[in-house]
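Much of what follows relies on a compact textual record of a protein's fold. The record below shows the convention in full:
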Amino acid sequence: MSDPIRDAQDRFRLAQEQMREAQERAAKLAREVAQEAEERTKAVRDAMPPGLPLRLLSAFIGIPLILALIFVEVWPERFPGIVFTLGVALIALICAGEYFRALKHRFRPNERLAYIGVVVLQFAAWNVSRGRLVDFLPVMLVVLTIMTLINQVLRRESEPVANLGVTLFGVAYVGWLLSYLIFLRSLLPGKSIEIPLPWGHGPRVGYGAWLTLYVLAVTWMTDTGAYAFGVRFGKNSRKLAPSLSPNKTVVGAIGGLITATVTSLLWGAWAHLPWYHCLILGPILGALGQVGDLCESAIKRDLGIKDFGGIMPGHGGLLDRFDSLLFTAPIAYYYLALLVVRYIGE
């Protein structure tokens, strides 16, 4: 006859053993799942292009700021586009600071006069686009040239010509070329449209705001397309300009042109631009954007630096991010102003 107490104890021990086995199986399964997740994370991390997370973070922060600068208006009757002008002036000032900081170990540029010139150029563009101060640019260049020369003489610099050259070049390269974003923003001030969005309609602002956004989109998508194509397909491709930028490939450049053309057609249809002009302007901006990037690479190589700054993680400085726009914004402005805008405004 069995002992009930002993039977209960046996059943209790059996239950404990089964529970331990279940716990061990659960722990083993959890370790396997964690190891598999870690391996997948490592595989994704290894497959991800270097610097991409930081680039995405910069874009996540920077894009809303750019959109706010383009579309926000304060007192549009008296000061149309003044918020955008102030934003571009600040960007130009930071870019000029990065440029002159990189020069200091070789030259003695007149930074204070240059900063004034860079900022004044942005507000000159704002005024000129509204039909004012048309003759201001020649006056400013004359004053800047004379004052810089006088400053070089007073400081008794040993290389006044070189210092004058890098000062004036910085003002023109950063300040003048970047001011064309303001000219773009000022196109067709009397025409405003609502761009359709998935959830309704976009803000009703001047047509120039949408043209500015179009140029920004095509330019920066060129860079993104070139980067993506180069990483994915350009490992064994011929280098585009190995002496200037060893990581750029011919495949990447072609990918950038394709991306620029597709972006131009899609964005142009969204912004009510004629498709044939988008088909022409897209590759032009794509090629110019990459040339602008290579030209800045030549400057950086001459100065012995990798980036002009580190304000934008994954991109370098602001000048590293806006280098392509320094080439695309002026050409886009003249193309749109001479061949497209006047027909749209009729």
Residues 52-74+199-346 form one domain. Residues 96 and 170 are 7 Å apart (CA to CA). The first strand starts at residue 192 and ends at 193.
